[in-house]
Amino acid sequence: MSLEPIDPETALDMYLTDRDTEVTEATIYAHSSRLGHFIRWCQSKGMENLNTLTGRDLHEYRLWRRSEGDLSAVTEKTQMDTLRVFVKWLEQIDAVEPDLHTRVRSPMLDEQENVRDVMLGSDRATEILQYLEKYEYATRPHVVLTLLWHTFMRVGAVHALDVPDYDPHKQLLAVHHRPETGTPIKNKSQGERLVAVSEEVCQVLDDWIDTRRPDVTDDHGRQPLIASRQGRAHTTTLREDCYRFTRPCTVTGECPHDRVIEDCDGTDYHDASRCPSSVSPHAFRRGGITYALNQEWPMKAVSDRANVSEKVLDKHYDRRTPEEKMEQRRQYLENI
User: Fold this and answer.
1) What is the helix (H) or strand (E) element at residue 38, kind and residue range?
2) 178 φ, ψ to 5°?
3) What is the DSSP letter of 183?
4) Superfamily for 122-282?
5) 8 Å CB contact between 148 and 281
6) What mean pLDDT comes out for the span 127-155?
7) Percentage of residues of the chain with pLDDT beyond 90
């Protein structure tokens, strides 16, 4: 077999471009970030042609990533699994030896390690949303964080919403998969659904649209609900909204980590994620789901609203304690 020379940077660009029509923007962003470490390693090794990549190289890279810092087993597995997908793709374009992907090793996780626990609690969510309602009413961050908490949507679904997708009379949002115009959603057409919203959420949306939303269209002539002056707000912007307003110092003026706020690098506009207490959009989704379950929403209702199977919901999203689950089951004792 004759391999065709290709440098790491070009290979990554081709890979991301090829996957762009298959997966969501969030997945592209995640793969770009994870594989960026591999590109850095290649540069440090002076590797300019991936044709020479070997199983030993892949093992050395894994050890190199570990040596860079306190890398958890979950993070290591995620990054190595993504690398395996990338190497398998490289095989398809004759860039590396066949079956090289089988030599990418990643740690085995037990059941508990494979479950992510980062979640925004209901008390913090209430505190943040009350702050936004008082000081940032009907601004983009207020709308974004309100939707994430109350609708259980993924950030990609919020990003994909258009103004016509909101029906204030029926009090609902229609989630659509529109890959041809730049807004695919996870689960594609299976992720399309109608999401009921409360009168409180409708009021925020009405005031955003009437008074604050920039009157713009995106590159495809659509009217994005979450808009900036440049058009549809990028998902990175939505994530930064979450990080900024989940910093305790933003809402309370105090730091629970004993940092000097004026000197903290987490107070920079684009570096809010450096704050240990800041959380991503997914923490809103997980927190909202758990809160709904604690309020005794039926599992099926939460599953349909969040567009996630009940099995995945139970494993990855339901953060109720065993005691909380027991107390909710207690109501059925009288029927035994």
Assistant:
1) helix 25-45
2) -130, 65
3) B
4) Intergrase catalytic core (1.10.443.10)
5) yes
6) 96
7) 61
**Does 305 have pLDDT greater than 80?**
yes
For 46, left (φ over 0), alpha (ψ -120 to 50), or beta?
A: left
Residue with tokens 């590109």: 39
Burial of residue 266 (CB within 10 Å: 0-12, 13-18, 19+) is buried
SS (H, E, C) 70-122: CCCHHHHHHHHHHHHHHHHHHHHCCCCCCCHHHHCCCCCCCCCCCCCCCCCCH
CA distance 192 to 174: 8
The domain segmentation of the chain, as residue ranges, is 8-103, 122-282
Q: Is the pLDDT of residue 112 over 50?
A: no
Q: What is the pLDDT of residue 336?
A: 60
Least confident of 16-20, 135-139, 242-246, 255-259: 255-259
The topology under which CATH files domain 8-103 is DNA polymerase; domain 1 (1.10.150)
> What is the pLDDT, as a whole number, of residue 114?
40
